Amino acid sequence: MTSLETLAKELQLPKDVANYVTFIPQGNSDNGSPLVIPASKIEKIYTQQLGRLTTFYHYNLVAKPIRKKRLTPYYNMLRGEANLLYHQLLFLEEKIYKSLKKKHQESLRMLSSIIEFLSENKPKNNGFFLYIDDSRLFSDLLEESPKSRKLNIAYRLISAKLDKLLSKRISFEEAKSKLSAIIQKQSKLVDSVSMNTPLTSLQSDFEELIMAEVLPFADLVSKVIDSFYMGNSDVFISTIIELVSNILEFLRISYPNSESAVSFLLYRFIFSEVYPTNKYFIVDPDANETPKLWNLFKIEELYLPLEYFPKCDLHKFPFEVFRLDPYYIMPISKFEDIMFYTNPFDIIGVVCDTITEIEKCASHYDSNQTLVFPFEVTFGLFLAVVFSSNVTNIFNLADFVDFYTPRSGLSSKFEYAKAKIVAAAAHIQELIYAKQNPENNK
User: Fold this and answer.
1) In this structure, are residues 209 and 186 in contact, taking their beta carbons and an 8 Å threshold?
2) Which of 348, 338, 341 is nearest to 405 (CA)?
3) Distance CA 375, CA 22 (A)
4) Taking the CB of residue 255, how many other CB atoms lie within 10 A of it?
5) Tell me: the pLDDT tens digits for 74-95?
6) Rounded to whole angstroms, how far apart are CA atoms 183 and 15?
7) Where does the source fall among the domains of life (predicted)?
8) What pLDDT band is residue 336 in, cutting at 50, 70 and 90?
9) Does residue 26 have a pLDDT over 90?
10) How far apart (Å, rounded) are the C-alpha atoms in residues 201 and 80?
11) Which domains, and CATH codes, for the chain?
């Protein structure tokens, strides 16, 4: 082992230090040789070196913390691909900030470690001087990390793509024609019985065009959103109905079911915009208590129509029977889809589909082969499905549907489903109250 290796081992150089260390021989003469450091100058060189490191630490690192900066311009209500690109930029912006902050913290730690090591290991008369290559060290400390470099490249590429997309100005006639075509296509998808219409890729195209600057609807949409924040559901409904009428009149559209198509398109758009502040979807810290309350009700306590589901122990909870039944698991799964929707029309649509599945199950177990099930039968079975599901915000959903759908004009199928969920929520609340306050039942 060479004397240098022995010295490095004795000093127990940390990895941070070892990467930048050079051992320069000490000399006894002041001949100025670059390969030898005169013994008389070692203390001065050591002090200067430590001073440079300390100064850099305080003025280039400590005094310049990484602060969060807004890189992406603010855009109002982007739609479609532009909206996707915009949120990708915001995501990358956050990743870039975290990457820079991590690199800065690593640089602080590394330089602090080196300064601490040098402070504790002053020059000794052992034939060598421990010299730190601070030029290379400082460059590495400030250098952008490979991860940050990749993130910045991705950010610039997406930013350029968004700028190019936004620079494409659509003409008034083109926007009007495209919006009319979208509504015509969506109108053809409206169900003739429920008047429901499926969520398709036309939704994002509609949202982009309805907010286009060349069309007169952006301010009207903002007015509808403002009416929601006012908290008056009647004003909101009348405002959105007025907007539907304005759109159809402006575009001179009279396609069959066009009113239903535009209503669904607008409801989905507006309620996705207000979702983050919609009180009906704000998580209640006590929400997890709801299933525990429901577990208090056994099948025998709910007076369910026994002839329409499998024979079972009536002392069991509904979920212990219905979730294990190969037929009733279908309406339960369908009802749990309700948690993925943010607007009252789609919520009612889920209830419609749930009732359809319930009637299939009831038909399977019905020995009388009933053609049309009375309200109380489907209501009781709907309760069983609700009690067996993982949906915990049934009360909020029922209120949301009740307050934010028109009082008239819904299809009979939608009215039936709306009545079902509203009545079910009210009945469950009554059951819970009676269970918690038995003295009032005497």
Assistant:
1) no
2) 348
3) 89
4) 18
5) 676 676 788 888 889 989 999 9
6) 66
7) Eukaryota
8) very high
9) no
10) 9
11) 4-167 (no CATH), 172-277 (no CATH), 289-436 (1.20.1050.80)
Residues linked to residue 24 through DSSP beta bridges, in sequence order:
129
Token pair in block for residue 331: 């309406």
Look at the block and give the residue holding tokens 């150089």: 13
Q: Identify which of 345, 406, 357, 344 has the alpha carbon closest to the alpha carbon of residue 385.
A: 357
Beta bridge partners of 131: 22
pLDDT band at 341 (very low <50, low <70, confident <90, very high): very high
Say how far apart CA 110 and CA 75 lie, in whole Å: 40
State which amino acid sits at residue 200: T
| Residues in CB range of 347: below 8 A, 6 or more apart | 338, 341, 397, 400, 401, 421
Residues in the chain: 442
3-state SS, the chain, equals: CCHHHHHHHHHCCCHHHHCCEEEEEEECCCCCCCCCEEHHHHHHHHHHHHHHHHHHHHHHHHCCCCCCCCCCCCCCCCCHHHHHHHHHHHHHHHHHHHHHHHHHHHHHHHHHHHHHHHHHCCCCCCCEEEEECHHHHHHHHHCCCHHHHHHHHHHHHHHHHHHHHHHCCCCHHHHHHHHHHHHHHHHCCCCCCCCCCCCCCHHHHHHHHHCCCCCCCHHHHHHHHHHHHCCCHHHHHHHHHHHHHHHHHHHCCCCCCHHHHHHHHHHHHHHHHHHHHCHHHCCCCCHHHHHHHHCCCCHHHHCCCHHHCCCCCCCCCHHHHHCCCCCCHHHHHHHHHHHHCCCHHHHHHHHHHHHHHHHHHHHHHCCCCCCCCCHHHHHHHHHHHHHHCCCCCHHHHHHHHHHCCCCCCCCHHHHHHHHHHHHHHHHHHHHHHHHHCHHHHC
- How far apart CA 221 and CA 240 sit, in angstroms, is 8
* pLDDT-based confidence at residue 2 (cuts at 50, 70, 90): very low
pLDDT at residue 270 is higher than 70: yes
Structure tokens at 187: 């109108």
Burial group, residue 65, by CB count within 10 angstroms (0-12, 13-18, 19+): exposed
How crowded is the C-beta side of 102, counted as CA atoms within 13 Å? 10
CA distance 14 to 134: 16
**Residue 25: beta bridge partners?**
128
Q: Give the number of other Cβ atoms within 10 Å of residue 157's Cβ.
A: 11
Token readout for 27 is 């000399």
User: In the Cβ-directed half-sphere of 291, how many Cα atoms lie within 13 Å?
Assistant: 7
Tokens 């982007």, residue located: 78
Closest of 137, 143, 144, 147 to residue 16, by C-alpha:
137
Report which residue type is found at 155.
Answer: Y
**CA angle centred on 176, ends 208 and 174, rounded to 5°:** 90
